[in-house]
Amino acid sequence: MATNQPTSEATADKQKQQTEPSLPATLPSVPSLSPECNQLKEQYDACFKDFFPRFLQGQRTNDCDSLFSSYKECVMRAVKAKNIHLWEVDGTGDSAK
Amino acid sequence: MADSGHLSVTQRLPFSWERVCLAFWRRYPNPYAKHIVAEDVVDRRIVDGCLHTRRLLVKQRSPGALPWYLKSLTSMCEYIVEDSVIDPAAKSIVTTTRNIGLLTRLGVFTETVHYTPCGDETRVLKTVRIRHTVRVSDWLQRKANNFFISSYAKRVEDTNRGFMHVLSQMFPNVVEKARGNYKAGQELARSARQSLRDKLNHVGAGPGGLLASRRIRCLCPVCAKSDK
């Protein structure tokens, strides 16, 4: 009965590295600029953590766009409220939405 | 507007490029970056297979962090914009980080970082430049440039340590393996030194040895065995 066993620890480690799981959720995170956006941020971050390893493997469609647009709206409200000139670094006149 | 100060530093992270990518978004918080108090993604899109992201970071300064001639120009809270481009095909991360807010009245401090694979590790090349945005007195600009460059040079190692801290938490097996290899190497070196010391003391050629001056070779089984 032949079984597919890794021949060495290095091979097993390489196989494990190639099928790296998504980012662990146990690491702490930094809060958002505005406390109102924290929940939206956590939801979007959770989606992105699942998407990003697949992006590194070649996936090009972003599954998290809908979550991102609601999160971004909340952040932009906070940016405007705090009068942060976010787009001045471009110098192109692209105003914050 | 000419650059008025710059610094280049090369560092290494003993983790593969893919692992560095995965940890890239989890760099904060870490014990070496307690001043980062908020973080938000303000733009993210995929263009030509590359992930373009713009993040807004909020840095809270401690009261003694700024010299007196800069305190009046800014508040204790500073906003930083980080633009990053991750190219999985070329295996490259490029980040450009700059300050926005009150201090830009004096100058813009821009840090560019390239993360590229280097064997089993990731090479990190950091370049920081200061660009004047408005002409103030030569004295103030010179003092400010010196302060920003020296301040950056002091904490550039801490930023790498912070990244290492996060990578070590996410991938402890890599760290343990490296640590194990290092410990095994140290153990081998220690036992080799000890056996040499024993041999020298037994022959008497070591410190305080009676035979040191005579250079006599010991023929006892211990030394004969170690000679093989």
Automatic annotation (TrEMBL), chain A:
Record's keyword annotation contains Secreted: no
One Gene Ontology molecular-function label: phosphatidic acid transfer activity
Span list, region Disordered: 1-31
Polar residues compositional bias, start-end: 1-10
Pfam families attached to this UniProt entry: UPF0203 (PF05254)
GO CC terms: cytosol; mitochondrial intermembrane space; nucleus
Record keywords, A-Z: Disulfide bond
Record's signal peptide: none
GO biological process, one term: phospholipid translocation
Reaction(s) this enzyme catalyzes, per UniProt: a 1,2-diacyl-sn-glycero-3-phosphate(in) = a 1,2-diacyl-sn-glycero-3-phosphate(out)
Family from the record: Belongs to the TRIAP1/MDM35 family.
Name recorded for this polypeptide: CHCH domain-containing protein
UniProtKB/TrEMBL annotation, chain B:
Sequence intervals crossing the membrane: none
InterPro entries membership: PRELI/MSF1_dom, Slowmo/Ups
Pfam families per the UniProt record, alphabetical: PRELI
GO cellular component entries: mitochondrial intermembrane space
Domain PRELI/MSF1 intervals: 4-175
PANTHER family linked to this entry: MSF1/PX19 RELATED (PTHR11158)
Name this polypeptide is given: PRELI/MSF1 domain-containing protein
